[in-house]
Design brief:
- The protein is α/β, with parallel strands linked by helices.
- It has two domains: 2-87; 97-325, Alpha-Beta Barrel (TIM Barrel), CATH 3.20.20.
- It contains eleven helices and 15 strands.
- The strands form two sheets. A nine-stranded mixed β-sheet has the order 13-12-11-10-9-8-7-14-15.
- Helix 2 runs parallel beside helix 3 and helix 4 crosses helix 6.
- The protein is globular and about 70 Å long.
- It binds S-adenosylmethionine and iron/sulfur cluster.
Length: 409
C-alpha cells in the first residue's frame, strides 16, 4: 500500500471522515498497511499518476487507527506507476438545481408530516429574490418543502420571478387548491411540472392519511388543470404523481396510477414508505407507529419497487421526462458504489434560505450555508459543506442521518 496522506492533505485536508459518523456498514474493514490492524475502509477518489493521467473513481483506503490515506497496489494502473495527486471532490461543483421550501403552512394535516410540527412560516419574497441573486447558475428550481406551496400568498409572484430569469419551475402539491383561478395562474405563470401526492385510490383510506383531504376534490382539480392547459394551448405544466404507502396500501400503486392517469396525470415520480428517521418518528401518533415495523417497511419498499416498474410502462418516468426536457438533476460524479450513500447533487434549502445536506434534514447546519446571505460559490467552497458532501458521497453518515433508509442494514 502506498501512503498518499501528503497528497490528500495537499489537495483537501478538510475532507475527513466526520467524528460523529455512524459505523461504516456493509463492508468488512480491511488491514491497514501501516499498523496492520483491520481498521481501514474504502472511499472513492480520482488519482493522478506520474504521466499526468487521472484514474477516475479509484478506491482509496483510510485507516481509522493511523488517520492516514493509502492507495492499494491493486489500484495502480501498472506496477511502477506512482500517484502524484488525488481529488475526492467527485460531485458536481456547479449545481444547477435548487429545491427551496416556500412555506411550512398547509391546509391538510397528514399524520406523518413533520411540517405540521414546525413553525408555520413562509419564505419572504425578498429572501427568495436574494436566493436567486446569490445562485445565478440555477436552471431549475423546485418549490417544494414541508408545506403546501400554493398556500404561500405570493407563490405565483415567486414563480414569475424565477421564470423571468429563465429558470424552470417545478413543484409538488397536495392538489387541493386547483381552483379555476389557480389552474389559470399555474398555466400562465409557466410552471413546467407539478406533481400531486395521492396515497390511495380509495377515498376513505386517502382521507385517513391525508387528513383534511378529499380524494374526489383532488382528482377533479387535476382534471381541471389538465383540461384548462389543453384547451388554452399551454404545453405546461405536465402533471406527475407521488405518494406515501403503508402496509395496508402497499399494493395500491396500479390502482392509483389508473385513477390518476384517467384524470390527466402523465408522469410517475415516486412513492415512498413511511420515513423511519429518528427526527420524524416522534411526531407519529402512537397508533400509527406499527407502520414502522422493519418487516412492514421492507415489504412496502419491495412492493413499491415492483409496482414502479409496471407504472412507468403506463406513465412516463420522471427521469425520462427530465431527459426530454433537458432538466439536469445532477449526477455528474459517481458516488461510492461500495455502500449506500447520498448521491444527490442538487442543492436543498429551507425557507430561511439555509442549505441543508438533504431534504430530510430540517435544521440548519451552518450559518455559512444561507443562500439569502451568501453566494452559492461561498457555500460550495465552505470547508464544512465540502466535507459533508464528501462524507455523504461515501456513505459516512453524520448522526443526524440516523434512521434514513440510505444507511442500509
Ligand atoms: C411534505 S409533502 C409537501 C408537498 C405537498 N404538500 C404534498 O403533500 O405533496 C411532500 C411529500 O412527502 C411525503 N411525506 C411527507 N412526510 C412523510 C413521511 N413522514 N414519510 C413518508 N412520506 C412523507 C408526502 O406524502 C408527499 O408526497
Ligand atoms: S399535504 Fe403535504 S405538507 Fe400538507 S400535511 Fe400533507 S404532507 Fe404535509
Amino acid at each position: 500500500m502506498i501512503d498518499i496522506s501528503h497528497l490528500w492533505n495537499r489537495a483537501h485536508p478538510h475532507l475527513q471522515p466526520m467524528a460523529t459518523t455512524l459505523p461504516v456498514s456493509l463492508e468488512p474493514m480491511q488491514d491497514c498497511g501501516l499498523c496492520g490492524q483491520a481498521s481501514a475502509f474504502r472511499v472513492v477518489a480520482h488519482v493522478r499518476f506520474g504521466d499526468g493521467h487521472w484514474q477516475g473513481n479509484s478506491h482509496v483506503l483510510y485507516c481509522v487507527q493511523c488517520g492516514k490515506w493509502f492507495l492499494p497496489e491493486d489500484q495502480l494502473p501498472s506496477v511502477d506507476a506512482r500517484p502524484t495527486a488525488v481529488d475526492a471532490r467527485l460531485w458536481s461543483r456547479s449545481p444547477t438545481f435548487l429545491n427551496i421550501e416556500p412555506t411550512t403552512r398547509c391546509n391538510f394535516n397528514c399524520w406523518y408530516c413533520v411540517g405540521r410540527h414546525m413553525e408555520q412560516k413562509d419564505i419572504t419574497v425578498e429572501d427568495f429574490g436574494r436566493v436567486l441573486d446569490n445562485f445565478p447558475t440555477i436552471k431549475t428550481i423546485a418549490l417544494v418543502g414541508e408545506g403546501e406551496p400554493l398556500m404561500h400568498k405570493q407563490f405565483f409572484k415567486m414563480v414569475r420571478m424565477a421564470v423571468g430569469r429563465g429558470i424552470r419551475v417545478v413543484s409538488l402539491s397536495n392538489g387541493s387548491t386547483f381552483s379555476s383561478s389557480n389552474v389559470k395562474k399555474i398555466c400562465e405563470a409557466g410552471i413546467t411540472y407539478i406533481s400531486v401526492s395521492i396515497d390511495s385510490f380509495d377515498a376513505a383510506t386517502f382521507a385517513a392519511s391525508r387528513i383534511g383531504g378529499d380524494l374526489t376534490q383532488v382528482l377533479t382539480g387535476i382534471k381541471r388543470l389538465a383540461d384548462y392547459r389543453d384547451a388554452h394551448g399551454f404545453h405546461y405544466p405536465r402533471i406527475g404523481l407521488k405518494g406515501t404507502l403503508f402496509g395496508h396500501t402497499q399494493d395500491q400503486i396500479p390502482g392509483i396510477v389508473a385513477l390518476a392517469a384517467a384524470h390527466g396525470v402523465e408522469i410517475f415520480e415516486s412513492f415512498q414508505p413511511l420515513n423511519p428517521m429518528s427526527t420524524y418518528v416522534p411526531i407519529y401518533p402512537a397508533a400509527n407507529r406499527q407502520a414502522l415495523d422493519k418487516g412492514e417497511l421492507g415489504q412496502v419498499a419491495t412492493a413499491i419497487q415492483r409496482d414502479s416498474v409496471q407504472a412507468v410502462s403506463q406513465l412516463k418516468s420522471v427521469s425520462q421526462f427530465c431527459d426530454e426536457e433537458g432538466i439536469a438533476l445532477g449526477k455528474n460524479g459517481q458516488a461510492n458504489g461500495l455502500r449506500p450513500n447520498c448521491d444527490e447533487e442538487w442543492v436543498y434549502a429551507l425557507l430561511s434560505g439555509d442549505v441543508t445536506p438533504c431534504c430530510q434534514i430540517k435544521t440548519p447546519i451552518s450559518p455559512n450555508w444561507n443562500l439569502a446571505k451568501k453566494t452559492i460559490d461561498e457555500v460550495l467552497a465552505d470547508a464544512l459543506y465540502e466535507n459533508t458532501r464528501f462524507n455523504l458521497w461515501n456513505g459516512l453518515f453524520p448522526d443526524y442521518c440516523k434512521g434514513c433508509h440510505k444507511i442500509g442494514g
